[in-house]
Amino acid sequence: MTGQPHLAAVERKLHVPQDQAAWSTYAPRFERLAAAELRAQDVPAWLAEWSALSAELQDAGSKLTVHADLHTDDDAIQGRYKTFLAEVAPQIERANHALTEKLLAVPGYVPAPDFALNYRRFRDEAALFREANVDLGVVHNEQKNRHSVITGNQKVRLGGEELTLPRAKQRLDSPDRARREEAWHALQASQLEVAPELDAVMLDLIATRTRLARNADEANYRDLRWKELDRVDYSPADCAAFHAAVRDEVVPPLGELVGEIAGRLGLESVRPWDYNRNNLLDPDGREGLRPFQTGAELEALAQRAFETLDPGLAARFGQMREGGLLDLESRPGKMTHAYCSYFPTTNEPFVLMNVVGTAEDVRVLFHEVGHAFHGFYSGDAQPLVWNRWSPIEFVEIPSMAMEFLTLDHLGHVFNDEELTRYRRKQLEGVIAFLPWAAQMDAFQHWLYAEAGEHVSVADLDAKWLELDRTFHPFVNWEGLDEAARAKGWQYYHIFQVPFYYIEYAMCYLAAVGLWRAARQDPAAALERYKTALRLGNTVSVPELYRAAGTEFRFDREHIRGLMAFLKEQLA
């Protein structure tokens, strides 16, 4: 599926009728729920009605968001999305808060075991609610959308061509060092071109986030965000210990690994264009694997992989292919990130990517479709919309585990030598990712809990450079202008989903554990995977990890043990 028929199916899936994007359609139903006499025995039916209403609104919001990300250069589509954020989203927040307070006030109500955790979360959310933050939240969303528009329309001029960011980044995988360097300089120039705009957006976001925290009577934005994200199983101190463990247990072996590759390639040192954490250089100087050319080919090869892995997963992916729930290819005006969205009324996930034909695209597709499976299975098992998906500390396990669980099902994509390379890249990718994750998390802890509200762009740049030198000391920047290096913090998650990043590291560690178990008993590991997905939001984070067959740990000893396993597998 590619070209116009595919795009037409996507547009149909994302269409939101005018009345479904208007608050007037939903307001009477909220009013009825708010006015209803509510006794303890009435709560289950009342919750079901509220859940169905929330699902409809989530549908509309998700579809408008995805549509805007596919058309960052279309003023009409952007305008419709902004109108929803400004006129409907605040009303949803106020109405949901009123219903939450009504639920919490029901005398004698004891939530069922599968709703107990969400009842506690409702109570905590109600305590954080401030009317002043409703309108300020509109401003916050508008500022984040400015980032999407700027980066979605970003171009790279390279070799007489104007390329999208994903296509330009593809050149960084070339075995030709001169070609890599040329691409790297072009990407740096593009980044510096938009950097002043992104600097301004970030300063506005910091000011807004500081006000949000102050309005909620929190000492800083980290404290507010900690509660918003329901982080009850670990503390900021645990995160700081993770940063130190990665610095000591992962950075040195990563430096050795990168140095060995450089030595085999005859490089005198590792320059910035020689290091791509998503795809380390091939030690034999071979071209990067190019397993497909079009989005349709990528869909087909993934379909065959899922068919050999599990018929149920294959059927789900087939549903996505046929239902206009995949948009994979890179186009001008399309937001450059990859993600999975979700439409709860139909229990359908939607995957957006920007593929250019690389093996890395194969990995990312399995990752995003792992998220999609999470939506499908939790949606099947959990009628209430709040019980679907899972806490964010688990939500990356379905995706990252799928990267590993498909490793033995790609014989139709790669020959034996290529498959060995692909598997090696997967293992190297975990090692290379952990320092980046620690750096991203450490930067945000500093920014929101230590730097203070009057932090400057120069402060942001300086802190990022300090952290980059700590977590990537093996990259040689001698003689280069580090202005673009200092802008490494201008990354999607910093703008769009603050403090959501350490979860990737937690879940990668768990995914490696799942893969280790799957090598002993693949069927049992896959069944545990599905069981954990079906639990959704009904049990705690440690319980979800145990259901999947692993532990909720990211301490030094655990990291050291998994690093030993990874190095053993690479050897």
TrEMBL record:
Name of one Pfam family that matches: Peptidase_M3
Cofactor binding note: Binds 1 zinc ion.
Keyword tags: Hydrolase, Metal-binding, Metalloprotease, Protease, Zinc
Domain Peptidase M3A/M3B catalytic residues, every copy: 173-560
Molecular function GO labels: metal ion binding; metalloendopeptidase activity
Domain of life the protein comes from: Bacteria
GO biological process, one term: peptide metabolic process
Entry keyword annotation includes Protease: yes
Cofactor annotation: Zn(2+)
Record has Flavoprotein as a keyword: no
Assigned protein family: Belongs to the peptidase M3 family.
Protein name: Oligoendopeptidase F
Source organism of this protein record: Deinococcus reticulitermitis
